[in-house]
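Holo prediction — iron/sulfur cluster.
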Amino acid sequence: MKSASTTLRSADELCEHALVPRERISELAEVAARYAVAITPAMLDIIDTSDPRDPIARQFVPDARELEQSPQDRRDPIGDDAFSPVEGMVHRYPDRVLLKVVNACAVYCRFCFRREMVGPGRGGLSPAALAAALAHVRAHPQIWEVILSGGDPLVLSARRLKDIVASLSAIDHVKVIRVHTRVPAVAPERISGALVRALRAREKATFVVLHVNHSRELTKKARAACARFIDAGIPMLSQSVLLRGVNDDVETLGALMRCLVECRIKPYYLHHADLAPGTAHLRTTIAEGQALMRALRGRYSGLCQPAYVLDIPDGHGKSPIGPNYLGEDGTVIEDFQGRRHQYPPRA
Ligand code: SF4
């Protein structure tokens, strides 16, 4: 059995839809009890159940290795807690804040860096917590940008999103509202006209950043959902996570970046996978990521080049991690084919 009309959430349901063999149910039920599971009908539709290495299944179907903890794993891998002035907010950089409006998602990704905090039924910020978060933004005129995150903000109703965007729009010094979401790809039917209108803020720039890791996630319906934002004047960027067995070869990564650009979505970030608990089997090394970025630059248009970044543990923020083409003393530059050149050239 393959298609489903509702989101799959238990090991039993995964078994019924041929995503896991019956003999693995008990171990996967243990994983599901530890970390939330959700596979939407849109994602179930594109999983090839005959392929044990399917890159979509690998992102959403639980794996017994998630119960293994590596010594490097951390509950809060990017150090959100240390920079949270009020509930639901992370204020790490001077000019922007992250507002985690809800701790639920449409799907639960096996590599999620907030996997200890997100899950079904965790709901949105309470009205009092949201009011405190908005008060923090109002009190800090240096906050130029507010990033709506979670969880996935687009699981909220259009009405609730409209209220949040309206509150932010009323703050003069906030000029940009950025929404990070996986919903246009994993539940494209949610991107209704009402939801698109809810995100349009008067006199503010709104950006939607799509989290997508494989070109197959950009189905016809997903592309149509993204086009609804872009045609309404909301530009889109993308963020992807470099994942072993999902997108860690240049053809797969290049195909994803090209698909995004063809959809008018500018590739923005390629994240090195965070040290989230039970995700060591999905992480690559940084050297592997840098080699992929070099190969990407050699073969694909400049439009297809995301920034490869690492969120430094303990809350030290994001840094680009190369590769670097300029020698340490600034006099030798490497080209896209790996050849080195003196700069400036000798007379
Ligand atoms: S959608 Fe984002 S927050 Fe939700 S599980 Fe996936 S990575 Fe985590």
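READOUT: Residues 105, 107-109, 112, 114, 118, 150-152, 182, 211 surround iron/sulfur cluster (CB under 6 Å).
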